[in-house]
Design brief:
Blueprint (H helix, E strand, L loop, with lengths): L31 E9 L4 H4 L5 H11 L5 E7 L3 E9 L2 H10 L12 H8 L10 E9 L9 H21 L2 E7 L6 H11 L2 E4 L6 H13 L2 E2 L6 E4 L3 E9 L8 E3 L5 E2 L8 E5 L3 E7 L4 E6 L7 E6 L1 E5 L5 E3 L3 E10 L2 E2 L3 H4 L3 E8 L4 E6 L15 E6 L5 E10 L4 E11 L3 E8 L2 E8 L10 E7 L5 E5 L1 E4 L2 E5 L8 E11 L5 E5 L3 E4 L30 H4 L14 H27 L6 H14 L18 H25 L7 H7 L1 H7 L1 H15 L19
Parallel strand pairs: 1-2, 1-4, 4-5, 5-6, 17-24
Antiparallel strand pairs: 2-3, 7-15, 8-14, 9-13, 9-15, 10-11, 10-14, 12-13, 16-18, 18-19, 18-22, 20-21, 20-23, 23-24, 25-26, 26-30, 27-28, 27-31, 29-30, 31-32, 31-33
Helix pairs in contact: 2-7, 4-5, 5-6, 12-15, 13-14
């Protein structure tokens, strides 16, 4: 059944009294990324990846890695081989990676995940401050090192008991991808959950390219620009631009149109463009791109991306990959120029910062972030835009996008998260070793060292048996269930007692799990579509229900109860009108004169359109440190406009009555405060007009020319 969302039940809501931990502003320093990729080349891949789509997926991943990243690629089966040498990513490294991807095959014996992890992490010891370490692991099978099952079991145990703790101590995030139903998903989930990483199951190999894109974004956290209707605005602070455009099989070749109107494709390239075309995507890198609007001539796709290297960056709080439903987190945004925090109030005043949240079900929400010391923001005017995020919506995948509109530049920052109902991953599985209850704690939600798990097992006769789960490895608790007769049905409820990472006590009771021969009889019956005919109604055994068997005739002439849709629509309209009016009054109360009439906003939009030429000049200029930066130019323009506006209203103020005590008026009449701020409002409006009339071609960024960095 499709779920319907109300805007108040989405992930992003403002909390006026949350339970978030003490806020820590995001670090302005750009971290160094160390990313190591492990690709399964065992013989079973012939079935699970017959078209060998691991090749284009790897080419996509390695092509996206920013310069300065340290990375390497290994393949594994019976042996582990270095496919792409470990080192610093540059043009030569990317070229080698494209060529090496052709050597990926499905000819290996066994699946030695233990050896692959040990080889890739050979030089990782203690955690390294300032370095983000990641492993991306793709496999389609179980731990398989020999013909002897005991050898496989011992290898798996060494992974969970020895290798995993060492990777945790080294601060490694593990991102795992399962490519078949035969994968040891419990192991892959444990590796991801214990390190704060991410687990995904690919239904088929066709999804690999987009899954690798998501894994890259999690590991590298790139800066991006918004791509709206296939158009992107490039400002002069951008040193490198990378466009990823997914393409359908029947789609025409992708082309790009520059701000000066020149259109080009992969056949004829400007000297500063590198273009890689694969069967289902194009990856285009432009060095020192021309400023102004660029247009992508291709089908729109939600996974298309525009990634940039720039010294004008958006730095956001790094959200955990999993958030427990109901948790509240402090979320902060700050801006940096050349890795230095920007505190210039003239620049920050004209930034519009929003969070855009979307769920896997298609629900969306938008929220404005302010630096005003209210509604989740900690300190007013400190250059940090803050709010609080509460995971109060439906569980599942969500995307949080920070959208920044600086009038002459745009930025986006994207993070994927999962809202989970339980602090543990619980599963009952049966194999050749018997039936086992497994519990894997999510390390970012509870502290595994404090975890205690108790299982209450109830049979058909409602007789209960309580058992304590044993910790069988650093990241897993287990209970054998073979002693329970298999000819009965059982349900299991887990009681979790632990501490949160901040030391606060925590308890949780799970929804029931089921096992046993007759467990299926206790499952909820399938929902029947409302428009199903009588001939389509079947019982649990698949037989058509007959009137004689049921013992009662179906009265086919009985009229169903009619719904008064006119009444329903009228009530909905009235409720929405009341809600909208209430929200508008609250907004006016909170923000006062900052609320503009629609007509005024439309007039400003018209002024902006008239001030912006249809085809702005687009000459790709090198970085020039003799010119002021974007931040400086915007701030200077704002200051000049404000000075002029204040000078214009000064004569009128000389004849005005004595100055109004704003603080006193605030206690008695909000309307008086708005009148007293009229001069400031006019000044702000003139500043907005001057900024909107700025041409992006008139703004240059000065900073020392240097090698490309991770941004």
């Amino acid at each position: 059944m499709k779920k319907h969302y109300s805007i108040l039940s989405l992930l992003l809501i403002l909390c006026l009294g949350g339970t978030a931990a003490a806020a820590t502003p995001p670090d302005v320093a750009t971290p160094t990324h160390d990313i190591r990729v492990l690709i399964d080349v065992s013989g079973s891949m012939k079935q699970n990846d017959p078209a060998n789509l691991r090749k284009p997926a790897l080419r996509l991943l390695t092509g996206l890695l920013p310069s300065g990243t340290r990375a390497g690629v290994w393949t594994f089966a019976r042996y582990v081989n270095m496919l792409v040498r470990f080192g610093e990513v540059d043009t030569a490294w990317r070229t080698q990676a494209v060529e090496a991807a052709e050597r990926i095959n499905s000819a290996g014996l066994f699946t030695d995940i233990e050896a692959a992890l040990m080889t890739a992490a050979w030089n990782w010891a203690a955690d390294a401050p300032g370095v983000r370490r990641s492993i991306i692991l793709l496999t389609d099978g179980l731990v398989d090192v020999s013909e002897l099952p005991e050898s496989d079991r011992l290898s798996r145990t060494r992974i969970t008991d020895e290798i995993l703790p060492r990777l945790q101590d080294a601060g490694v995030d593990i991102y795992t991808i399962a490519l078949s139903d035969g994968t040891d998903q419990s192991l892959l989930q444990q590796l991801a959950a214990a390190t704060g990483g991410w687990f995904e199951r690919a239904e088929n190999a066709d999804q690999l390219e987009r899954i690798f894109l998501r894994m890259f974004e999690k590991a590298a956290n790139p800066d991006t620009l918004p791509l709206i209707d296939n158009q992107v605005l490039v400002d002069d602070s951008i040193g490198e631009l990378t466009l990823l455009v997914f393409r359908k099989d029947t789609a025409p070749a992708t082309t790009l149109t520059m701000p000066d109107g020149l259109t080009f494709g992969s056949a004829r390239l400007p000297p500063n463009v590198h273009w890689h075309s694969d069967a289902r995507y194009d990856l285009v890198t432009v060095d020192k791109p021309a400023t102004g609007p660029w247009h992508v001539n291709a089908d729109t796709d939600p996974d298309n991306r525009v990634m940039v290297v720039s010294n004008l960056r958006v730095v956001a709080t790094q959200l955990p990959n999993q958030i427990l439903e109901g948790d509240t987190l402090d979320f902060m945004i700050r801006f940096t120029e050349q890795n230095q925090a920007i505190t210039n109030k003239d620049f920050l005043h004209f930034l519009t910062v929003k969070t855009l949240e979307s769920s896997a079900e298609g629900a969306t929400a938008e929220r404005l972030l302010l630096d005003n010391g209210r509604d989740g923001d900690i300190v007013p005017g400190d250059g940090i835009f803050g709010t609080q995020l509460t995971a109060s919506g439906e569980t599942g995948a969500h995307t949080v996008v920070v959208d920044v509109d600086g009038t002459t530049f745009r930025r986006q920052h994207r993070q994927d998260i999962e809202v989970v109902e339980s602090p543990v991953i619980a599963d009952i599985r049966a194999d050749e070793n018997g039936t086992t209850l497994s519990v894997i704690p999510r390390a970012g939600i509870i502290d595994p060292e404090s975890l205690e798990v108790t299982a209450t097992i109830i049979d058909d006769a409602e007789q209960s048996d309580t058992r304590r789960l044993a910790r069988t490895s650093p990241g897993e608790w287990r209970l054998g269930l073979d002693e329970f007769p298999p000819d009965a049905a059982y349900r299991v409820t887990l009681d979790i007692v632990a501490e949160r990472p901040n030391g606060k006590p925590f308890s949780y009771q799970s929804n029931p799990l089921r096992f046993g021969h007759a467990a299926a009889l206790h499952e909820e019956p399938p929902e029947i579509a409302e428009d199903a005919s009588e001939e389509e109604l079947v019982d649990a055994e698949g037989d058509i229900l007959e009137d004689a068997e049921a013992g009662e005739a179906i009265d086919s002439e009985e009229e169903p109860e009619q719904t008064s849709w006119a009444l329903v629509i009228t009530v909905v309209i009235l409720l929405n009108a009341l809600l909208g009016g209430g929200m508008f009054l609250v907004y006016r109360k909170l923000f006062g004169s900052s609320v503009k009439p629609v007509a005024e906003e439309e007039a400003e939009d018209n002024d902006r359109s008239a001030a912006t030429p249809d085809a702005p000049s687009a000459v790709a200029t090198p970085f020039d440190d003799s010119k002021p930066s974007v931040v400086t130019q915007v701030a200077e323009a704002a200051a000049a406009a404000e000075t002029k506006a204040v000078a214009d209203v000064a004569p009128a103020q000389e004849d005005a009555p004595a100055e109004l005590d704003v603080e006193a008026a605030a206690d008695t009449s909000p309307e008086l405060v708005m009148e007293g701020d009229a001069a400031s409002t006019k000044a702000s409006g003139e500043i907005d007009d001057q900024l909107k009339n700025l041409n992006v071609d008139d703004i240059d960024l000065g900073f020392e020319e240097k090698a490309r960095s991770t941004g």
